[in-house]
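Notes from hallway chat w/ T.B., transcribed later so I don't forget. T.B. wanted the structure written out for a chain they're using in a teaching module, and asked if we could keep both sequence and structure tokens in one place. Agreed to drop them here.
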Amino acid sequence: MRTGELVAFGAPFGTTCAVLPVLLRIARKYGLYDSYGPLKIHTQPIPRLGGVAIFSGLLVGSGWYVGVARGTVSVWLGLFLVWLTGLVDDLVGLSPNIRLIIQASAGVMVWYAGWTLPIFFHTGLDLLATILFVLCFTNALNMLDGADGLASGVSGIVSVGFVVLAPSTPGRGFALSVLGACVGFLLFNFPPAKIFMGDSGSNLLGFVLAFMSLDFYRGRSTNHVSILVPLLFAGVPLADATFAVVRRVVRHTSPMYGDRDHFYDLLLKKGWSARTVALVSYLMTALLVTAGLLWQKL
């Protein structure tokens, strides 16, 4: 890595590590803990403000490396709205419909900035495809954030693939910053977790992974080979989310309301430890990222 890239990784890592202890003290002082319930697996109070630290890390790293040039102003605005919506949801709760509307608006902002999914080569259809793409990634990471260390570890490994393949400064800057922030967060979130990222963290990571995927497409022709690479990279959360939606539809329940039948839930019910589930998920993601890198060479 060059000096600038080391800073783009190291600054988010250091910032995240520095902010997390402060958030832990704030959460304990004001009782800002993740609530118990049928969709929760923790048995003791755990703070859920970790997304603030991840956002701080991304802001420092990507803000320094990417800046607001090259048409990224609306991307930054979309990122901020997704993060803020998740934070409000963590603190006071928001309806799924409001969250989806804001996430879709963020997708419009990414499209407006020039990062689009050009599979139809028609303005309206490409806009719709971009919005759906952003929604899928954002909510897939949110669904994955149901066990200690999963969303942060998987996102960090996926970002490694984009560090290798990113065709632009914004894409590479965000990839390095996600990697740094996720590594820093894992020091506090790897099982047993001391803090959760909450929706503000998982939605933020999903949005940024969607942006990095669109950045990958932007630098290449979306042929039958390249279109699959980001989908392979994020295969674990995307597959889990797909099965979750199908499962809920079959059960005649809303896809927007959670359950405890994700792959990690089933493994935990079988007696796997949270650490084993996390490490196996990391291995699966690393294999998929490797497959994506090899596929790109075809």
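Follow-up for T.B.: The chain has one domain: 3-296. Might be a good example for the class.
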